[in-house]
Specification:
The chain is mainly beta. The protein contains three helices and 43 strands.
Length: about 550
């Protein structure tokens, strides 16, 4: 055996396979074993913390991390780090304040805030203490109102209690504070209406009166008068009316400004019967003095007779005691007789009257030969009018007749009536050619042409056939022009009557509320396969449709105006 050497003097070993012989001391005796036997035989009495799982160290533990943590191995001689990650890392990096998890791995800081008027907040982030939310402004003022009932907001933002009140003799209010229920505002009984202008009362025509009750009051726009209902409608006087009735001499009870009684005033005469009374009568016809008198006497000595202007003559008079009166001649017309009367024609300015009745001549004289004196200025070609007081004074007129016979009435509201009770009352059409006339019986207008009165119709008529392809109604009739005959859009007017003569066999013609919709029947009569009449009602919709019930493609819009 060679001399002793140190371990460092030994040559370097190769890769250990486990079969190499290794000397060990066991129970004080040097024995041999193998490298693999040594590796599997140690008993570990200590625990070890390793970076990762190490099966060779059966008593070892290795480092792990759960949610929010992760590990980073810096390698041999390096730093092994345990760091935050995910939501925990987001929390570390977030700002101050309340923390809100916005996703599985993220948190962000939040602060409590308020929006709009009425709220305020202090320490909204919670950093300096608990957040405090408080009422502010008008909401705080409202919360601080101590009184019950309605409240009012001032322009400064103050809120105070309020009460709805009425006006004496005008408006009454119940529960004005609203505490016990809703406030009720009403007119008081027998109210006094304030102001200096006036009161507008209901206005309507005579036909709009409807059912009424006693005391109703309105303005009738048909008569232009105020009227009241006391069991029957009674018009008030036009103008200012009577405001006071005075009583003159011999009457008592006046003046009367509302209601009262007018009576004959008493005189000093004592009521009773008088014999051969001596009386005194004043200018008002009252007996102001009366006394008994004595019977008088006397004798009629002569009665003269005269026919006066009656046209009669008398004979037999004078009568001094008794006798017979005889009348002769003819009683004049003015006295109810049959005699003739001679007219009295009085000449006026620039006019002379000559001759005797019935052969008298009236002639114009002076520079105004043929002129009629009327107003200072007059409308050229105006129709002459006469005043309604004397029937003699000529007045101006705005209704004119031109040199070729055209009549013009220019004023708004002017009209020339053409009213007749019925057609039988019309004048002869032959002598009234071109004239218009209204028949009240059937409510229609007519015009004279030739020898007949022709009715002005408010009816329009259409006829329809179908094209060969059953795709269109082909129209002829009122307003239909070439190029617009196949399923044209129709324009109808409320109140007018339209006739549809359906000549398209196998294509029922229906008026509908919509394309493919239900039939519109208001104002419609007749047959969908023949003649059908449509009087457009005033409440018709703006749009209707016509359509073939067997072929929906046949049809179009009906516009109502």
């Amino acid at each position: 055996m060679s001399a002793q050497v140190t371990i460092l003097q030994l040559p370097a070993a190769g890769a250990i396979t486990g079969t190499e012989a290794v000397p060990i001391v066991q129970n004080g005796v040097t024995v041999q074993t193998t490298a693999s036997a040594l590796a599997g035989s140690p008993v570990q009495t200590y625990t070890y913390l390793t970076v990762s799982q190490t099966p060779q160290l059966t008593n070892s533990r290795y480092v792990g991390a759960t949610n929010g943590l992760t590990t980073t191995d810096g390698g041999a001689q390096g730093v092994f780090n345990i760091t935050t990650t995910g939501a925990l890392l987001s929390l570390v990096n977030s700002g101050t304040g309340f923390q809100v998890k916005t996703s599985a791995l993220a948190l962000t800081n939040r602060s409590i805030a308020v929006s709009g008027n009425g709220l305020s907040i202090s320490n909204g982030s919670g950093v300096s203490g608990d957040p405090t939310i408080a009422l502010s402004g008008q909401v705080a003022n409202f919360a601080n109102v101590s009184a019950n009932g309605l409240v009012a907001l001032s322009t400064a933002g103050n809120i105070t209690s309020a009460t709805i009140t009425g006006t004496a003799n005008q408006v009454g209010v119940t529960n004005g504070t609203g505490v016990s229920g809703n406030p009720t505002i009403s007119l008081v009984d027998n109210p006094t209406i304030p102001g200096t202008g006036g009161v507008v009362v209901p206005t309507g025509t005579t036909g709009q009166r409807g059912a009424s009750t006693l005391g109703n009051f309105r303005y009738n726009s048909t008569t232009g008068l105020f009227e009241g209902y006391n069991g029957a409608w009674t018009a008030f006087s036009a103008g200012s009316g009577v405001t006071s009735v005075a009583t003159g001499t011999g009457l008592s009870g006046g003046p009367i400004t509302s209601t009262g009684t007018i009576a004959l005033a008493n005189t000093t005469v004592t009521a009773g019967a008088y014999t051969a009374a001596n009386i005194t009568v004043d200018a008002q016809g009252r007996i102001t003095a009366a006394a008994n008198g004595s019977s008088g006497g006397g004798t009629v000595t002569s009665v003269a007779l005269s026919g006066g202007a009656t046209g009669l003559t008398t004979s037999g008079g004078p009568i001094t005691s008794s006798g017979t009166i005889t009348l002769a001649g003819t009683l004049g017309i003015a006295y109810g007789g049959t005699g003739t009367a001679t007219p009295s024609i009085v000449a006026g300015t620039n006019v002379t009257v000559s001759g005797t009745w019935p052969n008298q001549t009236i002639a114009a004289i002076g520079s105004g030969l043929g002129d009629v004196i009327g107003p200072a200025s007059a409308t050229d070609n105006a129709i002459t009018r006469f005043d309604g007081v004397t029937g003699k004074i000529v007045q101006n007129s705005l209704v004119t007749v031109s040199d070729v016979g055209a009549i013009t009435a220019p004023q708004v509201g002017s009209m020339i009536p053409f009213y007749y009770a019925n057609q039988a009352a019309f004048p002869s059409a032959s002598t009234s050619h071109g004239a218009l006339a209204h028949s009240h019986a059937d409510g229609a207008m007519y015009f004279a042409h030739g020898s007949a009165w022709i009715k002005l119709a408010n009816e329009l008529a259409f006829s329809m056939v179908a094209d060969g392809a059953s795709a269109n109604y082909v129209f002829t009739g009122s307003g239909i022009v070439a190029g617009n005959t196949d399923d044209p859009i129709l324009y109808l007017s409320k109140g007018f009557t339209y006739t549809f003569n359906n000549l398209a066999v196998g294509h029922p013609f229906e008026i509908r509320v919509s394309s493919g919709g239900a039939q519109y029947t208001s104002g419609v009569s007749g047959s969908t396969t023949g003649i059908q009449t449509f009087t457009v009602p005033m409440n018709a919709p703006a749009t209707l449709y016509y359509q073939c019930s067997a072929h929906p493609a046949m049809g179009n819009v009906i516009n109502i105006s």
